[in-house]
Amino acid sequence: MMLDELLQQPLPQLLKERPYVRDFFAAMGIPLPSKGQRLGQVIDAVPAEQLTEFGLDRQELMTQFAEFVKQMEQFKAGAAQPVRTVTILGGCDKAGQPEEIQLELTVGDVVCVVGPTGSGKSRLLADIECLAQGDTPSGRRILLDGEPADESARLAGETRLVAQLSQNMNFVMDLSVQEFIALHAESRLVDDIDGAIEQVFATAVDLAGEPFTLATPVTALSGGQSRALMIADVACLSASPIVLIDEIENAGVDRRRALELLVKQEKIVLMATHDPILALSGHRRLVIKNGGIAAVIETSDEERRGLEQLNVLDRKLAELRDQVRQGRRISFDLDLFLS
């Protein structure tokens, strides 16, 4: 919409369609009446002295307002840089040996990162998270659609390209679950805030397996509930095209359900894991040794058949875990379990 059209809109209609407009004028101490005027009339009524405090005249105010609306609409439409491929250019391992690899990941890829504790799995995820350009200990370079990311893309907070679920998670905000979800939904300019709250909350409870309420303070959530809330938040609200997951098996959540949620969107997913079910759920595995990528293993058809058997056993183990959680006596027959 052109600036002239915005200026002629009645304020109630403008604020209903673009509630963020209120923030622009609030930052300049310009009150917006709830009815009876058009935006152009409000701007005309602003004293010149007030505009001078911000180094503006009326025309510059309108120019900045038009640019603000343009950027907010682009953000709302998800106009952040679309990413179709991520390329990892090798650096060196902990011994300084060259990492001879150039690996391209495309939208829809699920890649697992495996290796012993301390081998450098988290370092690889961190390199991708910061879109490294040879400026990290590994010396790796990360390309987006074949090109290095510019500094604005690396540092932009409002259009983050990478969402990361780390092993360690602590809330420090004094908010309820409902307030936390609403805050994020508002920052994402979601139209249906109540719908977003309902979707994220229901997904989180389903993942956690332990009930909590919208009124529960986020600081009172258990570790599993916290991870479940953040997984649901990333799956339902995040627009980042790249998702990094660090050892989701330790989250105390339904990990297969969590993975299904995270990969159902058209994203590039990298997941550090020690879990064989998760490792075989990916299209390939990056084997990390001594800080470097030592091998890339494509998941074979035989491994996929093995994954089906592992899933059967995992469901039976889940049933036993539920019995333990409910304080019931465990009735266990190995032959029946393996049948």
From TrEMBL:
PROSITE patterns: ABC_TRANSPORTER_1, ABC_TRANSPORTER_2. One of its GO terms (molecular function) is ATP binding. It comes from the Bacteria. Residues 83-316 form the ABC transporter domain. InterPro entries: AAA+_ATPase (IPR003593), ABC_transporter-like_ATP-bd (IPR003439), ABC_transporter-like_CS (IPR017871), P-loop_NTPase (IPR027417). Keywords: ATP-binding, Nucleotide-binding, Transport. The keyword Lyase does not apply. Belongs to the ABC transporter superfamily. This is ABC transporter. It comes from Syntrophotalea acetylenivorans. The lineage of its organism: Bacteria, Pseudomonadati, Thermodesulfobacteriota, Desulfuromonadia, Desulfuromonadales.
